[in-house]
């Protein structure tokens, strides 16, 4: 990409709840960026949003109108329900505007591969919001691991234990395969296991369980996976929306140290614990050498990294390839859980039902419902 200079002109499509996190992050970036346009099917909501965050931002009824009417956009944020992500991202690419898409990027590997195709055709990036990659501690962990100072990764734990009451699913698109793509595996825990994958690298095999324990959904409300990585590390991944004491926890056990974080929706350096193995106490000094306690993981740090890449003429994070690897892990979790067998990386492709949808037409509680009926 050619280098660009600030201020960057950005737009937001969809002005519901998560769009406020994007707009607040943009506001915190000051003069580097300007929110110049918003679009939403609810015109009144869009106008109120623009008045709150955009100042002079123009308001549009849909994405096509916005992309046609607003010249010189550097980035468009897609903050709509998941079923709309793929067509909106394709519109943006064909209009020549990089898109930052809320998670999950799309609903299926088939949709993801269509984005990959259009990205190759247009050369316009599609990026995914995986903001936990960008907290200072996560970046420090990746640097130390890459340097070899921590030794080999051996064991990891990734837990997203959240609580969502039944009323949470009164919103029509929540808890439905065809609109949200899945349950906590797709919509909640994906942030945590994306960071797990960013730290540990390519995964090789997944064996999983999923269940609908108590929530009024079509999708699962709990999934548990055991993952083996190409480097030999083993990890457990738990995604839940039925856990009253909410926490988000990651732990990495290397040969020479354990590194842990516990938080809820965003971490700071103080949320991390570094424990060197006996005989490797000097590693604690490396960990503490460049602490940034005032910085919290979140949308702002990822958007700042994207703008940094624009200025440098570099590929911005998180690329479509990175996002595909994370989405494939989700698909493998569902496929293994519903088929009752391990799934290897790269195994879900072609005409496999789990390429076309995360449920793969094999949800066990749906089969039970059909038999009862």
CATH architecture of the largest domain: 2-Layer Sandwich
When the domains are counted, the total is 2
* Structural classification: alpha/beta
Q: DSSP strand (E) fraction? A: 15-25%
Order of helices and strands: EHEHEHEHEHEHEHHHEEEEEEHHHEHH
- Total number of strands: 14
* Order of strands across the main sheet: 13-12-11-7-10-9-8-14
Query: What number is the mean pLDDT?
Result: 96
User: Biggest sheet: strands, sense, closure?
Assistant: 8 strands, mixed
CATH topology label of the largest domain: Dihydrodipicolinate Reductase, domain 2
CATH superfamily of the largest domain: Dihydrodipicolinate Reductase, domain 2
| Distance from first to last alpha carbon | 56 Å
Bin the helical content.
25-40%
Helices and strands in order, then pairings?
Elements: E1 8-13, H1 17-28, E2 33-39, H2 43-54, E3 58-60, H3 63-69, E4 75-78, H4 85-94, E5 99-101, H5 109-122, E6 126-128, H6 136-147, E7 153-163, H7 177-180, H8 184-187, H9 190-200, E8 203-211, E9 222-229, E10 234-240, E11 242-254, E12 257-263, E13 272-276, H10 283-288, H11 299-312, H12 320-339, E14 343-344, H13 353-356, H14 364-372
């Amino acid at each position: 990409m050619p280098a660009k200079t600030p201020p960057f002109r950005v737009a937001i499509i969809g002005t519901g709840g998560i769009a406020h996190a994007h707009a607040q992050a943009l506001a915190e970036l000051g003069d580097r960026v300007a929110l110049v346009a918003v679009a939403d099917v609810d015109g009144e909501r869009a106008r109120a949003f623009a008045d709150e965050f955009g100042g002079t931002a123009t308001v549009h009824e849909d994405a096509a109108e916005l992309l046609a009417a607003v010249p010189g956009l550097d980035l468009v944020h897609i903050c709509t329900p998941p079923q709309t992500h793929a067509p909106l991202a394709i519109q943006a690419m064909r209009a020549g505007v990089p898109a930052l898409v809320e998670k999950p990027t799309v609903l299926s590997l088939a949709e993801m591969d269509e984005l990959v195709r259009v990205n190759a055709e247009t050369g316009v990036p599609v990026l995914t919001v995986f903001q936990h990659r960008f907290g200072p501690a996560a970046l420090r962990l990746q640097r130390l691991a890459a340097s070899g100072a921590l030794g080999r990764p051996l064991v990891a734990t990734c837990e997203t234990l959240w609580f969502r009451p039944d009323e949470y699913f009164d919103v029509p698109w929540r808890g439905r395969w065809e609109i949200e793509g899945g349950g906590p595996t797709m919509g909640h825990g994906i942030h945590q296991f994306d960071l797990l994958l960013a730290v540990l690298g390519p995964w090789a095999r997944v064996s999983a369980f999923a269940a609908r324990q108590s929530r009024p959904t079509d999708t699962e409300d709990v999934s548990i996976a055991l993952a083996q990585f190409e480097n030999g590390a083993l990890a457990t991944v738990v995604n839940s929306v039925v856990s009253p004491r909410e926490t988000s926890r990651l732990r990495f056990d290397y040969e020479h140290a354990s590194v842990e974080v516990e938080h809820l929706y965003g971490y700071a350096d103080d949320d991390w614990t570094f424990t060197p193995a006996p005989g490797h106490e000097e590693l604690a000094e490396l960990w503490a050498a460049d602490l940034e306690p005032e910085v919290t993981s979140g949308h702002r740090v990822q958007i700042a990294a994207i703008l940094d890449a624009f200025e440098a003429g570099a590929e911005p994070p998180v690329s479509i390839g990175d996002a595909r690897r994370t989405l494939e892990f989700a698909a493998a979790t569902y496929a293994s859980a519903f088929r009752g067998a391990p799934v290897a990386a790269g195994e879900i492709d072609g005409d496999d039902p789990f390429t076309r949808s995360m449920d793969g037409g094999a949800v066990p509680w749906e089969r039970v419902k059909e038999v009862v009926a």
